[in-house]
Amino acid sequence: MKNRSIVAVFYLVGLTFLSLGISLMILADLGAGPWDAMYVGLNNLFGLSVGTWIFIVGILLIFINALLLRERIDISAVIPVVTIGFMIDFWLLFVFANYQAPVLPIRFAMLVGGVAVIAVGIACYLQSTIARNPMDTLMMAIQTLTGKSMAVSKTMMELGVLVIAFILGGPIGLGTIFVALLIGPMIQFFYRPVTKFRERLCKESVLQ
Questions:
Q1: Model confidence over 73-103: pLDDT tens digits?
Q2: Count of domains in the chain?
Q3: Cα 67 from chain centroid?
Q4: Is pTM beyond 0.70 here?
Q5: Range of the domain at 77
Q6: In 29-133, alpha helices (H)
């Protein structure tokens, strides 16, 4: 029971870090990842908060994934959608509500820091199988339908979303390239120490 609680904490901490990293990248205003650029583009065009668009798109993806995979609707996928949407609005609308764009070197540091925080968040989030993010399920649906590898399927998905973000006028720039090139290696870099830390905590909880 304690181990489940520890894993749940890693899951929530991961989503919190993920939302903070995304928020830092958006505030740096040097370009965001394809999905985040799309959300910002929707926010700029139609109003509503970035977090609200994460929720709306996430709910749509849950239904689309069920249709593509011909499976029952994954209700648990609402958990990461609601959590990330709420947390990003918390960071952008409350914590950084009076944020003023600083000089370029600080914005660049925010960009790099944001990517690193996202990687730590994903490394923590991957410690659990509590609820799968709808974007991850969409990648699996593309893989199932096309027969391509996971890497190719993810690339196809990201490029498709990038096109949509561009059409919507989302912030595509240096940050977009950073996410594309660095997020994978950085997740791999943080995943092992985070996993070891989680395993040590779980082992200690058993011994108590």
A1: 888 899 999 999 999 999 999 999 888 878 8
A2: 1
A3: 23
A4: yes
A5: 2-207
A6: 34-46, 50-69, 78-90, 104-125
